[in-house]
Every structure is written in C-alpha cells, then in structure tokens.
Amino acid sequence: MLTREEIQTLLDACDNLRDKCILMTLYGAGLRISEVAALKVSDIDSNKMQLFIRNAKGSKDRYALLSQANLDILRTYWKAYRPKEWLFYSRNNTGTHMTARAVSNLFHKYVSKAKITKNVTVHTMRHSFATHLLESDTSVFHIKQLLGHSDIASTCFYLHLLKIESLGVKSPPDQLAQLDKVND
C-alpha cells in the first residue's frame, strides 16, 4: 500500500499530463489496470461525478467515483489533447486504447522516478484507494460498491492493511473504565 504522501510524490514525478491523468484516475477512482486503459471519453459523467466502467471484472458494467480533483485534471487533459473515442490512446498510432502493459510500464517508470522503494504494482493504487477510504471512516459496504466487488469478503481483504491505531476503536475494557469514572 502507498501512503497519501507517496501517492502525491508519484503524481508529482509525472512529466506529462496524460501520464498524470492515468495515475490520478487509477487512484482517484480505484480502477483496475484494464479499466483505466479502456476508458472512453463518453464514460465521463461530470454531472453525476462518476465514470462508467464497461465490462469490468466478471463482464459487469459499473460506476466508479469521479472526484473533483480527478475531473479537473481530466478536463485539462481533454482541452490539451482532444481525445475522440478513447480517453487514453495508444502511442503507436493504431487508433486504439492503451494496453495494460503500457499502463504498467508508465506506472513503474514513475515509481522509480519518485524513488519509491516498496514492491508495488499498478493494483497497489486500487489497494491504496480502498485503504485510504477505510481510514477516512468510509463504510466497507460503500467501498464494496465503489470497487465493484460482488462479495463483501473481497472488500474485507483491505481491512487487514489498516494499522490498528488508524481504526480509532476503543477497547471494551477502556469503555468500562470510562463508565466507572462517570459513575464515581
């Protein structure tokens, strides 16, 4: 998992707008590598602040979160590049969308440039998205929906990534001690 600071360092390491948009969208929407690669311009719904994800895992369509920060950078990108169908085109001029391999290559390029020494993959951005939401007290059921999980057990995997102190849970004996103080 990457910390918020490491995510920011990774985004700051980007040397072009397209790559920064890709990394921001991976993290900001909690997307899988294939989902970000196959986004279409028409998948952006700025009125409802969501991204339409077609043929996600299990061949299911779903909606993902579109934050204001993500929308702002996507608008800047669109104004600069005016993509037609695919949001992120392949650089080899085939008129197709980027491949998962191309997304992975650019991710690892910026991990190196940002001097992040953790063993990470593109999927780490999705893990970080979910974990940061959990740390911000977002319901595991809402996160399940955002990630497009069909089974809550898949979402609960992210719970083990949290540090105990970040959960903000009071131990039952501590709660009893507080009752004793009130009753005294």
UniProtKB/TrEMBL annotation:
GO terms for biological process: DNA integration; DNA recombination. SUPFAM superfamilies: DNA breaking-rejoining enzymes. The keyword Magnesium does not apply. Keywords: DNA recombination, DNA-binding. InterPro entries: DNA_brk_join_enz, Integrase-like_cat_sf, Integrase_catalytic, Tyrosine_recombinase_XerCD. GO terms for molecular function: DNA binding. The keyword DNA-binding applies. Residues 1-171 form the Tyr recombinase domain. Pfam families: Phage_integrase (PF00589). Belongs to the 'phage' integrase family. This is Integrase.
